[in-house]
Amino acid sequence: MLRSLKSSWWVSAFLLAACHPSDLPEADAPSAIDTLEQGVLFPPPPPPSGNILDSTTFLGSVALPGSVQTSFTTALQHYSFAINVAAGSSAKLEVTHLGSSMGLDTGLFVYGPKDASGSYGTTVRAQDDDAGYGQLSKVASATFAQGGEYLVVVSSGGGAGKRFRLQLDCLSGDCEPVDPSVSLGSRPVSSSLQATLSAANAACGTSTACYGELRGYSFPWSHSTPASLDKVAEAVSLTEQSNALFGVRLVNTTYTQFAQTRLLSRLSSLHPGLGQEYSNGSEAVQVTGWHYSREMWPDACMVWEMYVIYFPESRGVLVFEQDYARDC
Description:
The chain is mainly beta.
């Protein structure tokens, strides 16, 4: 939307704190983020569940500092990303000109922190319409008084086919909580899954048409909460040797989304086995990876993709690589 049709204003928690506690209803108490930049562009509608996540398309976690880039696929869409924030830290959240399509109009919202039931609630903790470049959104500074996991939502009312890049920067404090490292050890891959892979590779005909590889890992863990997918991916990147690692890191996602949007159709016989290999039957399997392509022949590219399929409760890690040729 054009600036002339909208306005944005700041609400600071220190102003609210100046009031006597008895003057504020509980619902109006200062939020976990002490500075709110508010806008009016296409917030996700509050769902009956009371968890705003259910009104968004969740695309996984993003590190802080860090960035993610993706594209809208429909006219009105709400993409959400989880961030883990340490108490007392401040951060800048921005849909950047670099990496975003020209003429894109976005909205930016922050909800949370996530409670014990897994809900982010429906209270907007920070939001902006177009304080960034053109009609892109930016929250210049948000201070998180309470640590935990927050949900960042990027929306657009007319962004179909347009890409955007969300950049998260730490302004002060440690921002992301300390995340212990992971030390990987080899773990066998079941003979049944290996046999399915061999049959799929044979059906591909040649290694340039498509080719898959599988390797398994596990790791010891003594902490009360599971290791993060980002730390598992970091350990994989230090262990594996793949051309995919020369490319871009893909957004963290669920196994279901991976199987629907990333797994080659010619290797689809590996589903659902990939998501069940080390599963305890109830855990939420997480996936991330890398993508790299290079022109190898006139008008033809070779693509290398390596995926980390992580079983957080079982501490199992399945590394799946798919290579294939396509038109450049």
